[in-house]
Amino acid sequence: MGIALVFVPTALVLIWIRYRGGKRAPQQADSLSTATRGRISYYELLEATDAFSESNLIGFGSFGSVYKGILRSGTTIAVKVFNMQLEVPFKHFDTEYEILRSIRHRNLRLSIMIDVAYALEYLHHGCSLPVIHCDLKPSNVLLNEYMFAHLSDFGISKVLGQDVSNLYTKTLATFGYIAPEYGLDGLVSTKCDVYSYGIMLMETFTRRKPNDEMFEGDLSLKQWVSNSLPEAIMDVVDANLVTPNDSYLKLDCVASIMKVALDCCVESPERRTNMKDVVGMLQKIRIQLLAC
Fold this sequence. Notes:
Blueprint: E1 2-7, H1 9-12, E2 19-20, E3 23-24, H2 28-37, H3 42-48, E4 57-60, E5 64-70, E6 76-83, H4 89-101, H5 112-125, E7 131-132, E8 141-143, E9 149-151, E10 158-159, E11 167-168, H6 180-185, E12 187-188, H7 190-206, H8 221-228, H9 248-264, H10 275-291
Antiparallel strand pairs: 1-6, 2-3, 4-5, 5-6, 7-10, 8-9, 11-12
Helix pairs in contact: 5-7, 5-10, 7-9, 9-10
């Protein structure tokens, strides 16, 4: 048995007006705005997801699964189905709902990982109270038809109170992306999201998951990337992204991206960078890459 929670794309990143290259995405803002005002029946969800077909499954976790669906209006939605055999789904439904309903995001114009960086920068620094996602990983980043990234699944997210920089939790995130202090002591802060983002950034450019079978003993994804800098970056970067014939400038840009990722993954949370600085550094690197 399950209970379905619907996220239209506006609820995932809550972008009301989208631009790419100075042009508005056709009819996007109006159709999504209309979709959020009405109720969607269970029959419509069955129809939109092809009866929750496995082909529409886009992610799953401890509390349920997420399916992609398309309404009759053409609006793409994500439907979260909670596992009712657990005792906690309604609590997490309430948590996710309260966080999503309070967020409004500005327009993004950028590539996938910069989209995610902007979303985190807003959660950490732009909300009235800082929001910690707590489970940042690739399966919680959704892409729409315009390749805009949407950060999803706020089921175990935390909101920091006034003058509070961290808190404790018994709910753990996904192995491989979790910050050391979070995994060992249950201590969470915005710097935990920064750590997870750094791991994701490395995974994106190396095409290696942090739990890849090649990483055992003292060798981790982070250590593997660190050992490659600066001269051996070609040994770790996805071969589909760079070739030996690429310019030195392009390889230098990729190495700079990996340096940003490593700055996010410093063991000590106090020494980690923050998402404002990450956004600024990646923007500069993106400009250099475009020049290549």
